[in-house]
Amino acid sequence: xxxxxxxxxxxxxxxxxxxxxxxxxxxxxxxxxxxxxxxxxxxxxxxxxxxxxxxxxxxxxxxxxxxxxxxxxxxxxxxxxxxxxxxxxxxxxxxxxxxxxxxxxxxxxxxxxxxxxxxxxxxxxxxxxxxxxxxxxxxxxxxxxxxxxxxxxxxxxxxxxxxxxxxxxxxxxxxxxxxxxxxxxxx
Length: 187
Hints:
The chain has a domain at 10-135: Aminopeptidase, CATH 3.40.630.30. The protein is globular and about 40 Å long. Helix 1 packs across helix 2 (47-64). The chain is α+β, with helices and mostly antiparallel strands. It has helices at residues 24-33, 47-64, 117-132, 147-155; strands at residues 10-11, 15-18, 68-73, 78-86, 103-108, 137-143, 159-160, 165-166, 178-185.
């Protein structure tokens, strides 16, 4: 379906979005264990959970050539988090097996916040989605209180759907269950 030449690396003025390397796993685990980074997720991740997530992300990149790439800051050569594309689960109300969609997403370590790096990397991922994968639309979503991520979505030119949705992976009484959805159509 969305198969492209393997594996892709994207460059921006300050970032390299690339396949994961073994040295990324410990930094990713530290990022996922940070309560502030994970504030808008159900809970911080253990080392085993983080490693399993990184393994799955890297398997997807190896299989399809793209995904949530490891984000490397070019000047410092530091792993700073992940930025890229993902096919959300069909259990979400806007994605089904018959009509899958693509999301753009990011998760960066705190020292890299507030520098425009999520926006810069997400723009490169969107360009890839529209130019290489020829997608008609890309979505992004987050918990309602996550105003920083919603601001990135707005800077990307994404438009918010008027209604919120309840994330099915979270219990009905969970404070982060209500989510906003943003969309961007191909230029």
